[in-house]
Every structure is written in C-alpha cells, then in structure tokens.
Specification:
About 30% of the residues lie in helices and about 25% in strands. It is an alpha/beta fold. The protein has a five-stranded mixed sheet with strand order 4-1-3-2-5. A hairpin with a 2-residue loop joins strand 2 and strand 3 (about 45-50). The longest helix is centred in the N-terminal third of the chain and has 15 residues, at about 20-30. The protein starts with a strand and ends with a helix. It binds zinc ion (ZN) (2 copies). One zinc ion binds near residues 238, 263, 265 and 266.
C-alpha cells in the first residue's frame, strides 16, 4: 500500500480576518480530502496534516499561494495510515500555548542541521537543551541534551532559573519541528542568555537529513503514530518486560488513557492496558460487548 505523508509547518506572522480564513481553509481541506489539525491566530499558523502524495502537493501549493505563507517550510514524515481522525481548523490566541509574553520574531539564531552536526563532529563546547516535555525526551533526545522535567510547554518558564548557569555559554535549543523553540529562545534571550540558537525545523528536519547520527531513540509525534523512527536504536525500555522499546501506547481503558511505553508482545498480553486494574476493566468491557 502506498504510504501517506504527514507534513507539519508553522509560521509566526500577523494574521487578520481569522474567521474568513478558517472557513475557507477548512472547505479546501475537506475538498481535497486531507486530514489533520491546523491552528491559526493573530500570531500565525501551526499545523500538521496527512494525505497521499498528490493531496499533500496540492495542499502545500495552496498554502504557499497566500502572500503571508509564500516562504513557509514543510517537514515531512511517512505513515502507513491517517494518523489524524478528522480535519480541524481552529482559532487560538496563541498557536503554541506558552504565556511567555515574548515577541516570537525576536528569537535565537536558526542553526541548520548541517551546522549542528558539524558542532557535534568537531566536539565543540555547547549546551543543548530539549524544549519539549518529559514524555517526549524519554524515548528520544539529542546526544548529551539536558532534558527538563516538564509536562507542558508552559512550564518551560520554570526551567529558566535552573539553566541560568549557562547564560554565557553557547546554548542550542530544539523541539519537534521548531515552533516551540521560537518562543523558548525568545524567552532565554529576554532573560539575558548571550548566545542562543535553535535547530531549524527541529528534530524532524535534522533526522530527515542525518538519520542515525546524533539524535538518539525515537521522535515523539502528536498524532496517532505517537513516534517516528530516527535511524538510531531505542534509548527507552518497555514498562512491562524491560526490553529495549521506544513505542508508546495509550491505555485501552478510556477512563485511564495513560501514555506508556510498551512492546508489541506485552501489548497483546496486557490487552493494551497499563495496569492490572485497567486490564480487568478492558476485559469486562469487551465481554459486555459480546453479550
Ligand atoms: Zn514488553
Ligand atoms: Zn490504564
């Protein structure tokens, strides 16, 4: 079967007449048959969509036809199925919730994957910081990265005092596709960090160019796939049998819905559930369906 393409994109740019754009864009998405989630706001656009090669090509052409998005960059990954169930275009105050109160155009230097790889190859002196959440860095991260223990991006603000000892060092930030780093780097600069860079296009852009190098483990994605390969082996283990494993699963007990790392064998044995309690409730639910 032909693989589908998942493409993600963002741009911080002043947008107006959001309701008009929202309707027009949703109609277009439905017309060409792509699925995914697009957030728009006065500060810009942030989206991730899936479709076949032709649909994705048509979508990119359409988005680039708007003057505001003529230079927007897309980052592609593959999927065996639509990792989004429907098509959503939503208006939000922030296209990435941060409450940082920063200007997302006053950001750090955009470091290309090539430049980052060179810094690693030459063993340069730099501090690399993960701007993502703890469950994301648990299954994959850049080599030697500092991985703050946060559950939501908003809390990156609380990380700043803990890393202030690196204020005068060369600091490199990264996230999945680059959008969070625009705000995180603006925040560090505002707080007095002297030399802040961010990986341009994030992990996805890096692993598309240099798979199997300095990004270790798997890359978490906010869609049904939950992660994608990076060309390197797992850095995490199955929470049940402790074998190397980088794949997340959502607990089958809908009331629990916990995200946990689980291998295929254990998924079967545990009915995709995270605990004995959840396994029992899943069993009960399945039985009631049969009867
Ligand atoms: Zn296992
Ligand atoms: Zn559970």
């Amino acid at each position: 079967m032909e693989k589908l393409i998942v493409t993600s994109f963002y741009k911080y740019v002043n947008l107006y007449n959001l309701e008009i754009f929202q309707k027009e864009h949703l109609d277009f998405c439905n017309k060409i048959g792509i699925k995914g989630k697009v957030l728009i706001g006065n500060e810009g656009i942030n989206g991730s969509i899936s479709g076949n090669k032709e649909q994705i090509k048509e979508y990119k052409k359409k988005l680039k036809s708007y003057k505001e998005f003529s230079d927007i960059k897309f980052k592609d990954t593959e999927s065996n199925y639509h990792p989004f169930r429907k098509t959503i275009v939503r208006i939000r105050k922030e296209i990435v919730t941060s409450n940082f109160n920063v200007d997302p155009t006053k950001t750090g230097h955009h470091l290309s994957p090539k430049e980052l790889k060179k810094m690693y190859d030459k063993k340069e002196d730099f501090v690399i910081i993960d701007a993502r959440n703890n469950y994301e860095s648990k299954i994959g991260k850049f080599k030697n990265a500092i991985t703050p223990n946060i559950d939501i991006f908003r809390d990156f603000k609380k990380v700043v005092p803990k890393i202030s000892k690196y204020k005068n060092k060369k600091v490199v930030l990264y996230c999945t596709g680059g959008i969070r780093c625009e705000k995180a780097s603006a925040l560090l600069i505002k707080k007095g960090f002297k030399d802040v860079s961010q990986v341009d296009g994030g992990i996805i852009n890096y692993i598309n160019q240099y798979p199997g190098t300095y990004f270790e483990g798997r890359c978490f994605t906010f869609d049904a796939r939950l992660s994608v390969e990076t060309g390197n082996k797992e850095i995490s283990i199955c929470e049940k049998c402790h074998k190397p494993c980088g794949e997340y699963t959502n607990c089958a007990n809908i009331k629990c819905d916990k995200l946990f790392i689980c291998c295929d064998e254990c998924k079967q044995e545990w009915y995709n559930s995270c605990s004995k309690n959840c396994r029992n409730s899943v069993k009960i639910r399945d039985l009631s369906k049969i009867n």
